[in-house]
Each structure stands twice: as structure tokens, then as C-alpha cells.
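Morning run. Coffee first, then this:
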Amino acid sequence: MAAGQVNIMDDLTRLRDMTSSDFVALAPFVDQPARRRWMYILGNKNDRCQQMVIKMGEGLAGAALRLGRWVKLDAANPRAAQERRECPVMLAEQLQSAAAFPLIMGPSTSTGMKGLLFIGRRTDHGYEENEIKAILENLERLVAYIEGPWKEASR
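And here it is:
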């Protein structure tokens, strides 16, 4: 594993611990934008997420991809049960609450999107405002890995 990839895993572990999450996944959009996949995963119960292709508008990650902003799903949402059934990651990992964050470089457009971060819990405890803020403050580091040494190593 390259040094940049080790740093990404360290940062994902730190984010998972900081938010008391059970699951964290990162999908960098480097090589083939049409084949967006979860490449770095922590806390998974199976390997299904590694085979999933992230599609615009499908599930929580697809909503973040389409909207270009973070989205979350927890028990406070009146349609939470239905939304969980429509989210491939939440189904595969048995997550009860989750949030997805676009990794954006530059202006907030789909061309500036460098990847997606997905975090989740297997309990109904939703993400608090301070946890969301802490994650948002750390997204820039993940973008730097994707844009920097990691991108060079993937060529």
C-alpha cells in the first residue's frame, strides 16, 4: 500500500473514531468517472460495498452526488425506513443512520467533485451538528490525498 493510501486509511479511522461511527467508506473519482466505486472501506460486515457502483440519485451517496452537498438519514426523517431500503450501502451494511459528503475542490460543481465520503452507524443515533461540522472540517485533507500523491500513484 502506498504512503498516501496509508494516510487515507489513518484519516478514515480517525473520522470513524471521532464520530463514533461503525462504517466509513471513501470513493475517489480519479480514473473512470462513470465507474464510481467505494475503494477504501472500514467497519464493513461484508464485501458487497466494494462491488457497488455509485449512481446519481440512487441512495444517500447518489443524492450527495446529485445535489453536490452533504446529506444525512436518521430516525428524525419520517421516511427513514423507506429511504434505508432504497440505499444500497445502508442495506448491505445494516446501517440505521448515515451521512454522505461530496469531496469538492474549487467551486461547488460536479466537475469539482473529487469523491464521496460515506459514514454510518448501526444504531438509530443520528449525527449531531458538531459531528457533521467536524467531518466537514476534515474533508479538505481527503481531497488533498486524492489530488496529490495518491493520484500520482494511481497512474
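The chain has a mean pLDDT of 86. Good start to the day.
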